[in-house]
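INFO  loader      accepted 1 record
INFO  loader      residues=498
INFO  predictor   begin
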Amino acid sequence: MNTVGHLINGRIINDAARLQDVYNPSTGEVSKQVALAAKTTVEQAIAAAEAAFPEWRNTPPIKRARIMFRFKELLEQNAERIAQMIGEEHGKIAHDALGELQRGIENVEYACGAPELLKGEHSKNVGPNIDSWSEFQPLGVVAGITPFNFPAMVPLWMFPMAIVCGNCFVLKPSERDPSSTLFIAQLLQEAGLPDGVMNVVNGDKEAVDTLLGDPRVQAVSFVGSTPIAEYIYKTANANGKRCQALGGAKNHAIVMPDADMDNAVNQLLGAAFGSSGERCMALSVAVAVGDAAADTLIEKMQAAMQSLKVGAYSDKSNDFGPVITKAHQQKVVGYIDSAEAQGATIVVDGRNPQVAGHENGFFVGGTLIDRVSPDMLSYKEEIFGPVLQVVRVDSMQAAMDLIDAHEYGNGTCIFTRDGEAARYFSDNIKVGMVGINVPLPVPVAYHSFGGWKRSLFGDLHAYGPDAVRFYTKRKTVTQRWPSAGVRESVSFSMPTMK
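INFO  predictor   done
INFO  writer      dumping tokens
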């Protein structure tokens, strides 16, 4: 059986002391194993990054960018192969996997602008014959810890920008679907990246705690669940590291009475059930304003969901695939059970889908639940599955109050034809990413991604302009060259330009 190893200092390392099974979620079968890095293996990767840093930080930004240009080309050339790897280990349908990769490539394109992004600022004559400028210097060794749901895209949020800023990187991807992430890192090596600048260690908590505790690691970026995000943020900060930790979500869509209901239904289908709902930006709650709007929404959603196709990644006609593990399948079904037990109405039940030829796969069908209330467990917690819940309220303000009261503040949207309502919503809602008739308001690569409240720990968001700030430290230089032969008097006062 094949074993997925680590990439350290340009070489694949098989640390086989501990192995973990990797499943094909569509079949429920073990497809390979992944080596879980011991502390010494992670330290070896950190050492390789540290050794590569002095030369890499002095490499001109234009040369770093040229490697990213070649990397982008290799990603595009190998897109089908990467999508297949994602499908085999995550279960994501081929078209969805290609879309994930494309969003990652867009972050590589942004990183190609490093010479412009790192120019710094300059002011001449801030005082008599005194010039001042700021520059953005790399931190050193930085690390990324990434989730299973986007094995290509989320790592590409992190390491391209970190590397073009002059840092060296250690990535700890999810051990559940490691192959595509490792292959992408190998493509970066093929693009001409020097050995040691990019390293990948597969592992579990032992690897994570090693990265958090090692003083050579200057910053950590994380995407995953809120409990782990909070742990990583607190631990990294306690150890003097810069940290951004993106956590969970409970994303709401307000459906106003004046909404284009057919359009809203089509948008909700993709946003709620795409990628089996295993997205931190998935819309999992529709807040219908008024019973008339709720009844229409339920009627149209129920009809539209009859044509949803769940199945294996290899059939491009499928809309979404399985969830990641058997345990997660049972967890999602448990939330549906709890909603029913607490009085909600199961309108479309996806608890026992029949997928011919894949009877042992980890499938959950699209599920629609009506009359959900905020006190229900399924409302409070992130389900991370193909489940859309409908909450009924009497007014737009009640809908906004509901959203603002939730502990998560990642993404939200409103479906309406009323520009005044949309403007009020976007100005006042306490959520980090807002859509107006856009159900998945994921920022493009030249903006930055991040939520509010317990969806993000840290001050800087992921990728885009915030990534330049996160992966660099500002240095300000003030210089003066006194005129030859001019003797200056002593001053004990604070320098001013009065």
